[in-house]
Structure formats: structure tokens, C-alpha cells
Amino acid sequence: MPPPFPPGTPALCRDCGADPGDAPVCPACTHRRIVRHPELNTLTIAHVDCDAFYASVEKRDRPELLSRPVIVGGGVRGVVSAACYIARIYGVRSAMPMFKALKACPDAVVIRPDFSKYTAAARQIRALMESLTPLVQPLSIDEAVLDLAGTQALHNATPAAVLARFALDVEKQVGVTISIGLARNRLMAKIAAGRDKPRGYCVIGQEAPALLAPEPVRLLPGIGPAFAKKLESLGITKLAHLQAMDEQTARRRLGEDGPALLQRARGEDSRLVHPDRDTKSISAETTFNTDLADQTALERELWRLSEKLANRLRASEYAAAGVVLKLKTAAFANRTRTQRLPHPTRLPDLLFQTARTMLAREVDGTAYRLIGIGAQPLAPAAQADPPDLADPGQPRRAAAQGAIDALRAKFGANAVVKGRGFK
What we know:
The chain has helices spanning about 55-60, 85-90, 100-105, 115-130, 150-155, 160-175, 185-195, 210, 225-235, 240-245, 245-255, 260-265, 295-315, 350-360, 395-410; strands at about 10-15, 35, 45-50, 70-75, 80-85, 110, 135-140, 145, 180-185, 200-205, 280-290, 320-330, 335-345, 370-375, 380. By secondary structure, it is of the alpha+beta class. The strands form four sheets. The protein has a five-stranded mixed β-sheet with strand order 7-8-3-9-10. Strands 11, 12, 13, 14 and 15 form a five-stranded antiparallel β-sheet that branches. Strands 5-4-6 form a three-stranded mixed β-sheet. A hairpin with a 6-residue loop joins strand 4 and strand 5 (about 80-85).
């Protein structure tokens, strides 16, 4: 529940932008979506989070599914990529194994992910964000943080009003909904964005410490189950327990990161919004319909993923300076192996050969349910596949791959398929 602000508190109708004063219904448009906060007209840091993004895009394109539970994800052996809010009522969550999701919500409509469609929608939203401020830092395909300080003269409106208008523009132009958190810093803006979903608009100002105090420590981003359990063993279960410490006590009990954790528990965050935030890694993975232990079958899947990873690297204008192989056993145990490359590459053949060498060491009779390949660290595209005196055939392979890419761009992804890609 929002705090009971006194009469005269700044207010904004999220549907028409008017100031409704103290009225519970906007006099201008008769709508009730009104946000109130003492600092509404002065806060400038916003966290934007799309609501069940993949599922929302699918419902946008298939209106007959609007009232149905929708799960975006792999087959029976896969995991949930996204679940609409109707499916979440039944307990379906992202990253849940598909068989558990279907057991919880057997009437759900399951849709395979279409990442090209989601990327196109995300780019539309990103363009709308960048029309508000140059300080936009993407955090994922459906999430970003914005700093609107100094933009009031440009838009002739407060950041709060600009964000409300932006949310409506996203709904009209992209066809999905977003939730907004407006606060003094990035941490509290993120927490605010998650408090009123979907179509949320939550504002948190100087009341942040009091608001956080009764919350469990898991509320803070970065505190996972293991760290929460460690804190619990020290008698720390609520953020109030951290707020009560001084920095010396926090360092003694929690280590060198203790004082920083104490600050976050109080809602303090000095991070700036960096529009040039670097992508850390790019990857591709697949979950099998049946567990695989045969090396040939695993390599066939690995090749397809290597081509997909190469495509994603080219689209993102990056190259792989290292290769990561990811495997998940039938017992859900993860195996991750890494290998640095002699030079950055975007060639699927080199990505595949590097990953296949690592895979060969893992083929020991173990049955695997998932395989993945990633590029980490990343390098600029300009550094990819330089001429190599020790490998005179490298320029020819790069040229051949360029020709294949051109044919696929013109005639489709299946225009050219290498032999190892066939079953």
C-alpha cells in the first residue's frame, strides 16, 4: 500500500498527465491511475522493466490469447523463458523446468521463443527511451535504467510526467506494457519498478530506509539463497538488522564488502547511469528432448549452436576472444569449461573446433540434457579473424563464411547448410 501522503502532495495522472490535486479520480480524464509522492517533481532516476516481455509480445501478436495463460519456452524438456501474469497465478516462473510449469498450469499455451521478434520490439522501446534522454543504460533485452536530470526544459515537463507519457507511448506503438520505478538512485529505482507490476509506476524517495527496514535481506539484488543463508546464521534476516550496524561492525562481521552492503540496506547507491555499458558475453544453448551421451549427436547440436553464436556475434558487432562450453547433466549438474582463443573470431568453424575439443573431455558416458556455447570475453568486431602467417587458409575461410552469410541473408537461413548440420 502507498504511504498516506498529506493533502497537497504532488500528484500526476498517468493516463492524461494532468495534476488531479487531491482528488481520487482525475478531473480531466476520469481515470484513477494517479501517482502521488512529495518528491514526484524532483526525482530523476528511473528503472524501466517490461512486463512479462516475451509473453506480452506473443499476446500482442495473437490477441486471442489475451485471457489465456501463456508460457514462452522450450519443449517438455526445456525451461520457461517467460510466463504471463495469468500463468504466474498458478506458480509458473521464469527458469522453471517446463514439466513443472505444465504440471502447475496444464491449460497453458506454450510458445517457442522467437528472439528476432523480441529484439525488434526491444529496439523500438530503446529508441523511445533515447528520445527522452541520452543517459540510457540497457541492463537486458527488456530492462534499462535512465537518468532524466536536466531534461525538463527539453520536454517542458518533469521527468515523472515524461515517464508516464513514455509508458503510454510504449503501449500504443509497441503493444506491450512496462513498469516504472522512479527514485533517487539506481538501486531504489529498481526496487520500485518491481513493487507495482504490471503497468506499475512506483516512486520512492527519502522514505527508502524506513521502507526497506522490514523487508527480508533477499530483497537486495545480488543476495542469493547461499548468501542469505549465511546472513541468517549471523542472525541477520531483515534489512533493519543491517541498517542497525555501523561500518566497523559490518566489516568485522561480513568482511570487506560489509560496509557496501550496509549502504545498500539503507537504500544508498552511488552508481551512475552509463549509456556505454559493455555487453559481457553472448551465448546460445539448447535443451534436448531426450538426454544425449553420444559424442556425434552432441557435436551435431554443438555445431548448430556455433553457427547461431556466430550470427549473434555479427549482429552485435562483437567477436569472441574466448569460448565457454556449458553442459547440464541428466541430474541437473552444471559443467562449464572455458578456453581463450589465439585471436578473436566470429567464424563458426573456429568456435565449434574450440568447443568440440573441450566437449571431447566431457564425453565419458554421462548423459546430458543441455548444451550451450558462449563467447567470453568479447572483443570488438574489427579485431576478428586477422591474417595469420601460421594459418594461410584463414582468409579463404573468412571469405567463404562471408559469402554464406550473404546467401542466407538473401534466401533464408537454410539456403546453405554444412554437412555436419544434417541429422
